From TrEMBL, chain A:
Compartments, as annotated in UniProt: Cytoplasm
Record organism: Halorubrum glutamatedens
GO MF annotations in UniProt: ATP binding; phosphoribosylformylglycinamidine synthase activity
Keywords: ATP-binding, Cytoplasm, Ligase, Nucleotide-binding, Purine biosynthesis
Record's protein name: Phosphoribosylformylglycinamidine synthase subunit PurS
Annotated EC: 6.3.5.3
Gene: purS
Signal peptide start and end residues: none
From TrEMBL, chain B:
Quaternary structure annotation from Swiss-Prot or TrEMBL: Part of the FGAM synthase complex composed of 1 PurL, 1 PurQ and 2 PurS subunits.
Main location: cytoplasm
Keyword Nucleotide-binding: yes
Signal peptide start-end: none
UniProt KW Phosphoprotein keyword: no
Function: Part of the phosphoribosylformylglycinamidine synthase complex involved in the purines biosynthetic pathway. Catalyzes the ATP-dependent conversion of formylglycinamide ribonucleotide (FGAR) and glutamine to yield formylglycinamidine ribonucleotide (FGAM) and glutamate. The FGAM synthase complex is composed of three subunits. PurQ produces an ammonia molecule by converting glutamine to glutamate. PurL transfers the ammonia molecule to FGAR to form FGAM in an ATP-dependent manner.
Biological-process GO terms, alphabetical: 'de novo' IMP biosynthetic process
HAMAP family hit by this protein: PurQ
Catalytic activity: N(2)-formyl-N(1)-(5-phospho-beta-D-ribosyl)glycinamide + L-glutamine + ATP + H2O = 2-formamido-N(1)-(5-O-phospho-beta-D-ribosyl)acetamidine + L-glutamate + ADP + phosphate + H(+); L-glutamine + H2O = L-glutamate + NH4(+)
Enzyme Commission no: 6.3.5.3, 3.5.1.2
Entry annotation: catalytic residues: 85 (nucleophile), 202, 204
Pathway where it operates: Purine metabolism; IMP biosynthesis via de novo pathway; 5-amino-1-(5-phospho-D-ribosyl)imidazole from N(2)-formyl-N(1)-(5-phospho-D-ribosyl)glycinamide: step 1/2
Protein name: Phosphoribosylformylglycinamidine synthase subunit PurQ
Amino acid sequence: MTEFTATVTVRLKRGVLDPEAETTKRALERLGFELSALRSADRFELDLEAADAEEAETRADEMAERLLANPTIHDYDVAVAER
Amino acid sequence: MTVSVVQFGGSNCDRDAVRALRHLGIDAERRWHEDGLPADPDGIVLPGGFSYGDYLRAGAMAARAPIMAEVREAAEAGVPVLGVCNGAQIGSESGLTPGAFTTNASARFQCEPVHLRVERADTPWTAAYDVGDVIEVPIAHGEGRFEIEADAHEELVADDRVLFRYCDEAGNVTDEANPNGSTDNVAGVLGERETVAVLMPHPERATLPDVATSTDGAGVLEAFS
């Protein structure tokens, strides 16, 4: 078994309104920063033991499907690295 | 008939729901989620609140609690199931109803009376009303914006599963009357069976006389009588 860190990034699908990101963008602009858009995302770092990277990715993918993301509003991606 | 009002850690409208139901002459009891449902549940309410502190997403944790497998099984068997506010979020997160409830367009928590147009009167939840009736019921949520994929929404509308829409006092469904930016002003939807419904507004807070500005919500709870 090898130790991996699977990083799951969950973001709103394109076109889904993100009021928190809008509010954050406005706060940055109030501070004098210039930016044309801001998108926020949730990032989960999962430490797990698996036979290989493929197995680690499959398991992280399942976790995203079952709980971490809501398929109605979210897209997600999984990146695996050996720890 | 005894309605089970499922109590999760962080539920806070469970007592209100029991009290409102009993006021209507409907027997109801709170049921701690770890104790599971009674053997033959007569009716189920998923009450409002902030289960698990709204961690991850409102309703996400409670939707994966073991009791929800029992709730889904009961729902499939035709037991009436009503999700209110956080209960609506739990219901949609658990797949009882389509779509998702997420952050209000205002990015604020909103606690205010709203008007709802009754879109179906032939369900247990709306038998007390006529189609087009306008009822006043309060909302109290930060994550009540109904989001759904475009094709799924088309299907929802085609199947006539929108139960309530936000509207103005005269019953006009407008952007101004939409408190949270919900798709198509949707405030409440039906599950695959008409005996399953979720809505963000609180009918149990518009049932007892003298505590709210209206008792218009009583008709929804009368589904359990």
